[in-house]
Amino acid sequence: MRSQQLFTASSSRRRRTWGQAGFNLIEVSLAIAICSIGLIALMGLLPTGTEASRRAGDDTLATSLASDILHWRRISPYTNSTYLPMGSPPLNTRATVQMYNDSMGNFAVDEYNNPNPFFSGNYFLTTYSVIDHPMYPGVLDVARLVVTIEWPALSTNRTKRVFVSDYARWQ
Fold first, then answer.
1. How far apart are CA 59 and CA 151, in angstroms?
2. Contacts of 62 (CB under 8 A, 6+ apart)
3. Is the pTM higher than 0.90?
4. What pLDDT, on the 0 to 100 scale, is given for residue 2?
5. How buried is 76 (Cβ within 10 angstroms: 0-12 exposed, 13-18 middle, 19+ buried)?
6. Which of 62, 12, 81 is nearest to 163 (CA)?
7. Which of 41, 59, 60, 146 has CB atoms 3.0–4.6 Å from 129's, for a disulfide?
């Protein structure tokens, strides 16, 4: 009798929990639908993130290129032209030079007008302008250097960054 009571109690316990164990088809379908909606939303953000990463990389390259030009200008004597950009005007001459650079600062064409065969990315249009300083117009011992970087250079829809630095001649 006692064993029969145990068997009856355990089977009734089993019956009560049997209907509550696991998931039914509606719950599983709902979970899959929610997960798929989340994955679709994440996949929609992937192109935006990739584009933002590319733009940030291009901004960094443009800043690096302008920084190199400004540093070359700082180490060159005031009345001499600089190497980068090659043949650029000295600071006591008001002039503008344009050139095309790759992402490493190399010129897009060499001195014989041959394109750079080792680079296949976007080129940067670099404009180097020596202008009068607005506070000292006409004074040749003070100059303002404006470096403008635009990319992609061969596109009509370009991104543009302008970098400005002031220079003075010390005796």
1. 9
2. 124, 149, 151, 159, 161
3. no
4. 59
5. middle
6. 62
7. 146
